[in-house]
Design a protein that fits this description.
- With 169 residues, the protein is an alpha+beta fold.
- It has 2 domains: 41 residues; 119 residues, no CATH class.
- The protein has a 5-stranded antiparallel β-sheet with strand order 4-2-1-3-5, sandwiched between helices.
- Helix 3 runs antiparallel to helix 5 and helix 6 crosses helix 7.
- The longest helix has 21 residues.
- The chain is globular.
Length: 169
């Protein structure tokens, strides 16, 4: 309670600085940009990587610049991201941040994903929070540069490069 009272002026000032119109306009712009991005990825088979703002803002392993990033595959990346976003709204406090999309071309996405995951695991980029074998298998403690290096070695083409507004770089 003492902490709240001591910071009361700062809290009140922060609340006054929030303009609901500006916030609504920014949210609408962000939604339009996300829709445009997903439209450009419609029907693309490939590997995607996303995370959430709090992982990007506060990396799990700041010393090495690594944080938790989900790396998965889909025959239609845009559709998969839309489905994940709609399911996540029920239990996630913020939207996902799409970080990368790599095209697998004519190659089988499941085989490419397996190779991608094998390289991440071999390099020690495993999820330290994963305790069971059934969940979290696609989450890795890694970074964008390492993902790009794997994609280059595997011979994937980068279709989308993004960052979260919460990232500290």
């Amino acid at each position: 309670m003492k902490l709240l009272i001591a910071n009361k002026a700062a809290i009140e000032s922060a609340l006054k600085d929030q303009d609901p119109v500006v916030e609504a306009e920014a949210a609408a712009k962000e939604e339009r940009e996300a829709a445009t991005t997903l439209a450009s990825l419609e029907g693309i088979a490939g590997i995607y990587a996303f995370s959430y703002g709090w992982y990007l803002e506060s990396p799990v392993d700041p010393q090495h610049g690594n944080t938790l990033i989900k790396v998965g595959e889909s025959l239609n990346v845009a559709q998969h991201i839309r489905e994940h976003t709609s399911k996540a709204r029920a239990h996630m406090p913020e939207p996902l941040a799409l970080i990368r999309v790599y095209s697998t071309g004519a190659r089988a996405v499941t085989e490419v994903e397996r190779a991608f995951h094998d390289l991440l695991r071999t390099a020690g980029h495993i999820n330290p929070r994963r305790v069971g074998r059934e969940v979290g298998v696609e989450w890795f403690l890694t970074n964008e540069d390492f993902l790009d290096s794997i994609a280059k070695v595997i011979g994937l083409r980068t279709l989308y490069t993004g960052r979260s507004e919460f990232a500290t770089e």
